[in-house]
# Entry
Amino acid sequence: MFTVSFLDPVGGGELVEAREERVERAHDLLRRAAVRVGGEADQVGEDDGHVLVRVGDQLLAVLHPRGDVRRQHVVEQQLGATPLDLGDVAPARAPQLHDAPALNALERTIAIATWLGRMRNEHASARVFEALTEQARAAGLDAATIATLHQFRGEELRHGELCAAAAVALGGQAQVDLGERAAVLWHDDVDPLEGLLRNVLSISCLSETVAVALIASERLETGPIALQETLRAILADEVGHARFGWALLDRLAPRIGAARAERLSAWLRLAFGHVEQHELRELAPGPSPSRAATDVGVCDGDEARRLFYETVETVIVPGLERRGLAAAWAWQRRVFPVAA
# Structure
């Protein structure tokens, strides 16, 4: 059952709610004038009127109703689970772990789940870069930039295969439920360039920069040479993905201007909240169950969370401040779009 809440422009902006069992009907209502899909009323940003659009706990859009209802497009969305099976490629790529420690059943199960979680996240990132490629094309960016984003998609797919191979090497199956697709917002309330910049901030400058710090730390703790090499290969690409966003901000700086920088700073409130909730959801608190588990890729959740906050506060926020964005203000006033 989907609850659709929307502002009825004919009825003077009255909030109207309807319940639909069929998602197609719910989407039809959304297309007409929806403010949210699913969940409780959730007003975000008391000073700028941001309103969330959700299906269940999936963030679909953020609207900016300033006198009217403006619908946002979602580049990608999928309701329900999506299976991913890399059993046709992972076994052939599974590394030999002759130098891996002996694992008990619990350690092995957690290690396999860790690598399968990475496999899932890498495929989600591939979908994100696919959507970002289309957005860059719509924003009129040059062919080389668009080709680079397309290349990033291929790199993320390769990362997924590497993680699947590691799971197989540990005795697992290269199968995982992708869950609901992450939504990449099209941002109809601003021009295509500003919409692209919002997503570049969220994806490259925030998420990918955090990924670089986390993977670098995990690689240092990993024992078997083959798993170190897996993380090294992934890390090299993730560094490129993060640097891309920072370099693009620098290159487009003359086109940003004061007004756009102010709007992007406001957007960062939501972007910071989203990346924090995502990382805390992925990084379960508590230490690794053992040194042996750490050796094969299971991270210390408490240490990873500490590193996340350190990266945001000492790398990301200062970097964005140097580029004229009010990142410290946005981080202190971050809002949380998706329930943890």
